[in-house]
Structure formats: C-alpha cells, structure tokens
Design goal:
mainly beta; 3-stranded antiparallel β-sheet; 7 strands
C-alpha cells in the first residue's frame, strides 16, 4: 500500500509536498522539484514577518525563500522528518 505524500500549506500561496523521493514546492512561477539526493532541508526564520527557506545540501546551491504562516514550522514537523530520510 502506498502512503500518501506529506503536504504542508506554508502560506496562502505556497504548498510543499514530499512523496519519499522528491520535495516539490508549488506557488512559484513554476514547480520546484528537489530530489532526495540534493538533500533538501527546511529552515524557518521567526519575527515580524516569518519566512521559510528550502536549502540544498550542496555548497553554493540556491535557496528558495518565501513567507510562512505563523506556526508553519510546527505544522511541517512530519515533512522535515520525512526529508531527512
């Protein structure tokens, strides 16, 4: 039986999904797909305007940053655990 993908709505316009192999970011001009081999990681910044960033394990790799709803880091715990393998 296939388990459903993990999904987190981080803002009104951004959705992250992870199916065990690829982390996908919806809400940009296109869909960003990050395979597990690129070691995607989620980082959260708090403050007046909370943000979330998806980074890659390779040095010098680009980051995808976007606004996050307050509490998005708590809601994405399952997704963070899943992307760590």
């Amino acid at each position: 039986m296939k388990t459903p993908p993990h999904e987190v709505l981080t803002s009104d316009t951004t959705l992250l999904t992870f199916d065990g192999r690829v982390l996908e970011l919806f809400g940009f001009g296109d869909v960003h797909r990050l395979p597990v081999r690129q070691e995607p990681r989620l980082e959260f910044a708090t403050g007046r305007k909370p943000t979330m960033a998806v980074t890659r394990g390779q040095p010098g790799a680009p980051r995808d940053c976007f606004p996050a709803r307050p509490g998005a880091s708590r809601r994405s715990v399952r997704l963070r655990r899943a992307t760590r393998g």
